[in-house]
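Let us work through a complete example step by step.
Step 1: write down the sequence.
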Amino acid sequence: MPPARLSRRGLILGGAMGMAGAAMARVRMAAADAPASLLAHPPSVVTDPPRQWGPQAPPPYLPDPDIIAIDPSFSNLAYGNANIRLAWRGGDWLEGPAWSTQGRFLLLSDTIRAQQYRYLWETGTVSVFRDQSYNSNGNTFDAEGRLISCEHGMRRVVRWEHDGSCRVLADRYQGAPLNSPNDVVVHPDGGIWFTDPGYGDTIVEGHPDAPGGRANRMGRELWTKDGEIVARFAGHARQDDHVFRIDPRTGDVRAVLTQQQLASPNGLCFSPDGTILYVISSGAGPGQNGPGGDQRIHAYDLMDGTARNGRVFADMMLDGHQLGPDGMRADIFGNLWCGAGGPLGLCGVVVYNPAGHMIGRLRLPRGVSNLTFGGPKRDTLFMCAADALFTLVVNTQGAGLS
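Step 2: predict the structure and record it as tokens.
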């Protein structure tokens, strides 16, 4: 039997915790051999016992030992008096954080529970925002403050209007249904860009294809179970992956990048001036033809709504390990903050400057699926990591709308 392939989700979680055990063993041996002077170093996520999180944790150390500057320039982005905080824990798999400037709240998707949550800035409390989100993943707010969501279950991109109605922006391309729209961003020109891999074409986070489709080739998965709505109205067959643009004037859906040009597109964002598109290429999704993506961040020059001059921006390698990138956002200086999975001690968030050099990272106890900047000043980094939401005040601000 061939060895089991590590899934994208498993990579984000840190190699299904097997790597975590190995890392902890190394830490124990290192601590046993270290001189007494080194044992006074403040704890981090790789200490034994591990760093404690939450309101009952002891006062944190300053500067935070899990905020790591690789290049001196990162010190200008990190705020020395801030700690990484566990803000909330209670979801199943959190995704798609988006900050509502008008509402002063953070919106989150729980792709497994098919709910959306609202994190209130003033109180730090979390409540259910939408009880049925059809396994939504990526979210953003446009210039008018309207919520745009990617729905795995219904395989579509929707926008919630000011009067409370829901408008379908995209659910098909060239007559074929979409896969499972994943991440979405709004360009300064009003165009809506989204990725459409097949990660949500599963029993847990959406629904598989109908029998015979790429994401249910053997027909064994009972895709209509507990899915009366999706069985009747949603797409039933996976197609190739694409990066799409929705025209702000006509509403036309156009493929900007095909699966052959960029396999397994996942997270995406723009440079602060909107001239560069960044797209993450992740591992193969359910039913995908071909080997999948290369786990790298790719960059493209934008001109008249088209993406040109594709190149690798960052290879996501750290200490000889291939990290698993997922979602990312740019700050006002053009740095990319990218959520990443990998071994304990390496997973969390990595930061690249506009030249593609890794300048810093945030070490977390688990991989980060997606992140965004929020708060009234847009200087708080919100990080989704499995069932938990982490925050960090930084000395920069998020670029773009959400």
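Step 3: interpret the result. The chain is about 5% helix and 40% strand.
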